[in-house]
Structures are given as C-alpha cells and as structure tokens.
Write a structure and sequence with these properties.
The chain is 28% helix and 17% strand. It is built from seven helices and ten strands.
C-alpha cells in the first residue's frame, strides 16, 4: 500500500522545461519538515501558504506533508470512529486507524510525534524553539471527542495544547504550532511570539477516552467503562479529570480547588 500523502514545497531551484506543481508529491531535501495526520488534508497549507511562511515554503526552507487519515478507514465509507466506551455524546477515533497512519508517517527515533489536545502541555516559545532546531515534527489532528487513549499511550505520543479552550479539530491548532516553529528557522523571519490562555469551562482537563475494540495491542478499556453503571462511570471520569489536572496543570488545579473550597494538596 502506498503512503497517501501530499507534499507542499519544492526540491531545489533548477532549470527545467516542465513547470513544477507546488501541490505535487515532492519533498524538500535537508529542510525542516512538518507531517500532518488529518481527516482534512485540504485544510493545508491554509494560512501557512501565505506571507512569509508561504514564501519560505516556496523557497524550500521547510516542507509540509499531509497524510489523509480517512485513507486508512474501514468499510465502504472508510469509517475511522466509533461511539465512546461507557456511553456519552460524540465519537472517538479508533486506535487501529490512527496506528496505521502513524506507521505510514514513521520517522527515526527522536522525531517528535504530537497530538493536539486541550489537556496537553501548553505550547510555548521554548517548545517551538526546540522543534525548529530538529529535523521536523509529526502532528496528529483529532476530531469529534478525540482519539482513543490507548494509541496515545502505545506510541508515547506527546500531547500539546494551544491553550485552555476547545476547537472543533486540530487543524487550526496545527497551523498555529507550525507557524510559530517555522518562523524560528534561519532566513524565515524573527523569533518574537506571544500566547494567550483562557480557562476551561469546568476548570479541569478531560478524562481519557476509549472506544472499540475492547482489547487493542493487549491494552484493555478500563473495566468501569464497560460496566454499564452510569454513576460509577461518571465518578471515574471526574476522578480521572481531577487527577490529570493536578498532575499536568497545577495552576488550573489550584484555581479549581479555590473555587470549590478544597485543599490543593489532597490526594
């Protein structure tokens, strides 16, 4: 099976009687690369193809490659999602589908693989600087209620958040992260950047999500989510949300405890 990708950029400047199509499947040699796993490859390059980042893309200072997640879907309609384990609204992207895309996008060890998630580590200038100094980054864009937690754990994917707000998908966030990183590449533009943060509506990070199959790569969905006991499921989700918030975002946790009269140091 060929890898379903679309690259943006050019190999090099050279004389040719045949014009190059910047949307064709070409790859910049030796330049910083961004790989995007998405259900909407047509969203790229988007604003990244404009202004200074667009010119840098044309000049071959960096390259953009999209990988269509739908291509790895199953059945006649290329389904990629299923209902959340334990019930609830929305859909969750299946782990086996994401795994196929990640394997297709695989790079040598040390290449960053990032999932755009509001419960991830806040994106900042230091992270952009670190990425810009490497060979590139792979960004996984979520949709619906997110991605099955097991594929995140299995591949050791780093979760990164653009800020404390919720979007319909990761594509816009991916463009923002790439823009902030590409502008740090020599000869593109300067390195000034600013960020804004807002609070989650409930003040907590989201609990882990799971969906079918019930067992994947020897990883099982937590038993409570399959129990059908809605009170226990709700209690588990609230506990996991609080635990994740305390571990990953102490600032949000302290604010949450202050509003509810709780001790931030409690277990």
């Amino acid at each position: 099976m060929s890898i379903p990708t679309k690259s943006h950029g050019r190999l090099a400047i050279s004389a040719s009687t045949k014009p190059r199509d910047l949307m064709a499947d070409v790859r910049v040699q030796g330049a910083w690369r961004a790989k995007i796993i998405t259900l909407f490859p047509e969203a790229f390059p988007g604003t990244l193809g404009l202004s200074l980042t667009g010119k840098a893309l044309d000049f071959g200072l960096w390259a953009l490659e999209t990988i269509d997640l739908r291509t790895f879907g199953e059945g006649r309609h290329r389904n990629v999602d299923d209902t959340p384990a334990g019930g609830g609204a929305g859909l969750v992207i299946r782990p086996n589908i994401v795994a196929k895309a990640l394997d297709a996008a695989a790079e040598p060890a040390g290449w960053p693989v990032v999932y755009l998630s509001p419960r991830g580590k806040p994106f900042d200038q230091a992270m952009a600087q670190r990425w810009s100094e490497g060979p590139g980054v792979t960004l996984l864009c979520g949709r619906f209620e997110g991605v099955d937690q097991r594929v995140i754990d299995h591949y050791g994917i780093e979760e990164v958040s653009l800020g404390d707000f919720v979007m319909t998908g990761g594509e816009i966030a991916a463009q923002a992260l790439i823009d902030a990183t590409v502008r740090l590449i020599p000869r593109v533009i300067g390195n000034h950047a600013s960020t804004e943060e807002e609070s989650f509506s409930d003040g907590l990070l989201e609990f882990p999500q799971y969906t079918k199959p019930s067992v994947w790569q020897d990883r099982e969905i937590p038993e409570v989510l399959l129990s059908g006991h809605h009170a226990n499921i709700s209690r588990w989700r609230k506990d996991m949300a609080e635990r994740l918030t305390k571990e990953r975002r102490p600032d949000l946790w302290r604010a949450y405890c202050a509003r509810h009269g709780r001790d931030p140091g409690e277990d």
